[in-house]
From TrEMBL:
GO MF entries: phosphorelay sensor kinase activity; protein dimerization activity
Gene Ontology annotations for the cellular component aspect, listed alphabetically: membrane
Organism: Spirosoma profusum
Coiled coil ranges: 355-389
Protein keywords: Coiled coil, Kinase, Membrane, Signal, Transferase, Transmembrane, Transmembrane helix, Two-component regulatory system
The keyword Kinase appears for this protein: yes
Top-level division of the source organism's lineage: Bacteria
Signal peptide: 1-16
Full protein name: Sensor histidine kinase
Length: 641
């Protein structure tokens, strides 16, 4: 089979044979600053045996590095994930992590890591089939590797350059690159197992070049060298690809049994390490041999497996040949129902590989069959009808779009007008509410002034008159004088009551000293006389608030405390007043019966409506919640500048 096996190089750390068990034990006692490094080593160690677990540890390493804000660790973790996703076959993830690593490597002036990031970007483009772009990235990665004297990395990139040239059909340039890399590795000491594995990949690439050049003996020699290295290093990825090349060479050398054994070994190795991309060639090869041996069930199994993976990676080279195998298979099984479909798919992908577009195929078909004048006229008529239908459909869609835009504009205008009207109504309601409350307060001031300056003064004068009369009757009529003293005492109580009423309606303390002293007096005069325990906490307050805010909060507090006296049956009240951010917060809590705010609002309680009206005029919010374990917590939030 003329298969083109892709063997891209990765940086040397990808093939490190670290003992994962010991690393996982070390991880338990590793300090936070060293965890990214240990997790990254676990990622690299698992890639040759369990890709998913390697990716898991790579992502954990990146998370730990980002928590530490360690740019170098973040860069190395991104490079580790870039290499991991090469084996997983996810080009988008390869590109993502390479792009994250590249600017950090350049910023840190780490030439070796810069080269590896360029390699990752090249690998991403390669897997997408953008070979010219991949070649550009690989070539960009060579100078920084040489600058860092990282010759292994430089030759790894040179190997990838050869792989791209091989894919672009430049066989001589590809073989030249592979031989340079092989010569470097074979003439230098390779102390690391990863370096030895890399030499195995070079041999695999050379085997591919010889195979597609019909030099099957040389292809088998290189494949055998790669297999030996894979077996020595116990590297499943290398074994999967080198066994596949070995099978190709055996098959072309008319040694089908040995070819089948090699293909099956390749499939087993690829499955063991989770390398799906390495399954295509050996599955297709095994399927073709089983078909020749007339073992059609086994042939179906392996050809279907090859087709599924080739579809996943959208490899047109493999798809063309696998669909041709499907054609042969259904013919052998006499399942002619799908024969035409597979023939068409094989032809389409084969044409795609040969850079023949669908448009060119249609043109050739038209040239072949449009010889008759009548058919040509019919085709022109069809095209004209199509253009007319297209024009009519376009016109209809344009009109529909215009109508839709007009309707949307009209709806938007209506909504805008409604919003303006609603805002005006709310503004008028707010102005009306403010006017009512201001009139109410003006009336309170007038009544309080009349009580204090009128009736209260007259009662005081009357009391003084009683005192004078009492003194005169003291010696003449003691019994009458005592009666007069009782009346004077009663009159004094009336004076005090009138003064208290005046102060409640308009407390002088509010104007003279501000909100805090007024609330203290309110608690003292309204709750303490009936035996309620009170607490008043205030902090973080401005010296004075504006008159409207002070008066509004005072009236709200009056109403809330009045509700506590009437309904709560409490024995303790806590009042808090403080500023938090741009809000002034007043909080009144009692330990009595809970207050059902929703029920009172539904019934239209006058006291609650008064509170909500005053809160609204101050542009604030009011909430009422059940206390723990009993009681009610009322909270008022007023915005302040």
């Amino acid at each position: 089979m003329k298969k083109l096996l892709i063997c891209l190089f990765l940086s040397s750390s990808l093939f490190a044979q670290t003992k994962t068990d010991s690393l996982e034990k070390v991880l338990l006692t590793t300090p936070a600053s060293q965890r990214p490094k240990t997790l990254r080593e676990l990622c690299n160690a698992y890639l040759s045996t369990d890709i998913r677990k390697g990716i898991f540890y790579g992502r954990k390493a990146l998370t730990e590095a980002e928590k530490l804000a360690d740019e170098e660790a973040i860069m190395r973790c991104n490079l580790a994930l870039n290499r991991a996703y090469v084996f997983y076959g996810n080009s988008d993830s390869i590109k993502y992590f390479s792009q994250k690593a590249l600017p950090l490597a350049i910023k840190l002036k780490n030439d070796s890591s810069t080269s590896r990031a360029y390699m990752g970007l090249g690998n991403a483009e390669f897997y997408k089939g953008n070979f010219e772009s991949a070649l550009g990235y690989y070539l960009q990665g060579i100078p920084p590797a040489e600058k860092a004297n990282d010759l292994f990395q430089a030759y790894s990139l040179q190997n990838n350059v050869g792989t791209v040239n091989m894919r672009l059909g430049r066989r001589s340039e590809a073989e030249k690159s592979f031989l340079q890399v092989a010569n470097y590795f074979s003439t230098h000491k390779l102390p690391k197992p990863s370096d030895i594995v890399s030499l195995g990949y070079v041999y695999t690439n050379l085997a591919t070049i010889c195979y597609i050049s019909n030099r099957y003996k040389e292809a088998l020699d290189y494949a055998n060298k790669a297999v030996r290295i894979g077996q020595q290093q116990q590297n499943g990825h290398l074994l999967a690809r080198s066994y596949a090349e070995q099978g190709n060479a055996y098959q072309k050398s008319d040694r089908p049994d040995e070819a089948l054994a090699a293909f099956l070994k390749a499939c087993r190795a690829a499955r063991e390490v989770g390398d799906e991309s390495a399954l295509i060639v050996p599955s297709a090869g095994a399927g073709s041999i089983f078909q020749v041996k007339n073992q059609l069930d086994s042939a179906t199994k392996y050809i279907d497996q090859a087709l599924a993976v080739a579809k996943k990676f959208n490899d047109k080279n493999y798809l063309a040949e696998i669909y041709q195998l499907q054609v042969q298979l259904v013919s052998a099984k006499r399942e002619y129902k799908n024969l035409n479909l597979y023939e068409e798919l094989a032809r389409t992908y084969r044409d795609s590989v040969n850079n023949e577009t669908i448009a060119e195929k249609i043109s050739e078909t038209q040239v072949k069959y449009e010889t008759a004048k009548k058919e040509k006229e019919l085709l022109e008529q069809r095209e004209q009808n199509f253009r007319q239908r297209t024009w009519l459909i376009t016109l209809a869609l344009s009109l529909l779009a215009l109508l839709l835009l007009g309707y949307l504009y009209y709806s938007r205008s209506r909504l805008k007008q409604k919003a303006l009207l609603d805002a005006a109504v709310i503004r008028e309601q707010q102005l009306g509410l403010n006017a009512v409350i201001e009139a109410q307060e003006a009336e309170r001031r007038r009544i309080a002034k009349d009580l204090h300056d009128g009736i209260a003064q007259e009662l005081v004068a009357l009391k003084l008159g009683f005192n004078v009369l009492q003194n005169r009757l003291g010696n003449v009529a003691p019994a009458e004088a005592q009666r007069l003293e009782d009346l004077s005492s009663q009159l004094n109580d009336s004076c005090t009551e009138v003064r208290n009423i005046a102060h409640v309606m308009m407390p002088p303390t509010l104007e003279q000293h501000g909100l805090v002293p007024s609330l203290e007096m309110l608690l003292r005069n309204s709750l303490e006389p009936v035996g309620l325990q009170t607490e008043f906490d205030h902090f973080n307050l401005p010296t004075r608030l504006n008159e409207k805010t002070e008066l509004g909060l005072y009236r709200i507090a009056q109403e809330l405390l009045n509700n506590v006296l009437k309904h709560a049956q409490a024995d303790k009240v806590i009042l808090q007043l403080y500023q938090a951010g741009n809000n002034l917060i007043m909080r009144i809590e009692d330990n009595g019966k809970s207050f059902d705010f929703d029920e009172a609002k539904r019934r239209g309680s006058m006291g609650l409506l008064n509170i909500l009206s005053r809160v609204s005029t101050l542009s604030g919010t009011y909430t009422s919640e059940k206390g723990e374990p009993t009681g009610t917590v009322a909270t008022v939030r007023i915005p302040v500048d």
